[in-house]
Amino acid sequence: MGVEIDPALCELALTHRSFAYENGGLAHNERLEFLGDSILGQAVTVMLYRENPNLDEGELAKRRASLVSSVALAEVARSIGLGAHIRLGEGEEQTGGRDKLSILADTVEAVIGATYLDRGGDEATALVLRLIRPLLEDPDRFGAAMDPKTSLQELSSRLGRGLPSYQVSDSGPDHSKRFHATVVLAGEPVASGDGSSKKHAEMAAALEAWTQLQSTAK
User: Could you tell me which residues come within 8 angstroms of residue 77 by beta carbon, excluding any fewer than 6 positions away?
Assistant: First the structure.
């Protein structure tokens, strides 16, 4: 990623809660993730504001949402091979956690947070911009990120894959449920996503599926 941070802080940023819980309650990366989310949002907002003087606030908000989405961050993580370095518990390891959208996205945010603490705001902002710059080169991303379910339906129909359907499950206590959605095309599951509501999980899954189909269609 082009930046060196304190090894202990880096290790913390890469420690998923599943690993922490299975190893005696170690510290994990969720506080760093919380911090990194804020740094990411600010860096992307300032960059978009400065580089797009002709866009109104509504369009800027749309573009920001597409660049800081879990799907976008997971794509960033995959591009730098981050999944191989995450410290995961056995359960997550066995269920494909190293390529799970939510885990990859959260770890990117944790690394950004760790960079801020160790190297300061300028270095953290520079890291954010390096990571998301490749995403800006795909203008189709902005439309899909705003209405991923419609974009997926249009793309899958155009490719002859039929209409998508969604399988949704939830977990956790009533006050903090997490939802998991899987997109099914022609009877085959093609992508999944997580969210704090059924709608958000379906949107995350749809955007992941759209990204996969778009890459095969090019």
Answer: 83, 104, 105, 107, 108
Please give the chain's pLDDT, 218 residues, in tens.
667 899 999 999 999 999 999 999 899 999 999 999 999 999 999 999 999 999 888 888 878 888 888 778 888 998 899 999 999 999 888 888 888 888 999 999 999 999 999 999 999 999 999 999 888 877 666 666 667 888 899 889 989 989 999 999 998 877 777 888 999 998 999 998 887 788 888 988 898 898 888 877 66
CATH 1.10.1520.10 fits 7-138, yes or no: yes
Structural domain spans, the chain? 7-138, 147-217
Can 37 be counted among the known catalytic residues?
yes
The active-site residue out of 92, 109, 194, 208 is 109
Give the pair of three-digit tokens for residue 6.
């304190």
Q: Please check whether the two domains, 7-138 and 147-217, share a CATH topology.
A: no
> What are the structure tokens assigned to 100, written together?
């799970």
Q: Residue 77 is encoded by which pair of tokens?
A: 């993580």
The active-site residue out of 33, 37, 92, 106 is 37
- Topology at the third CATH level for domain 147-217: Double Stranded RNA Binding Domain (3.30.160)
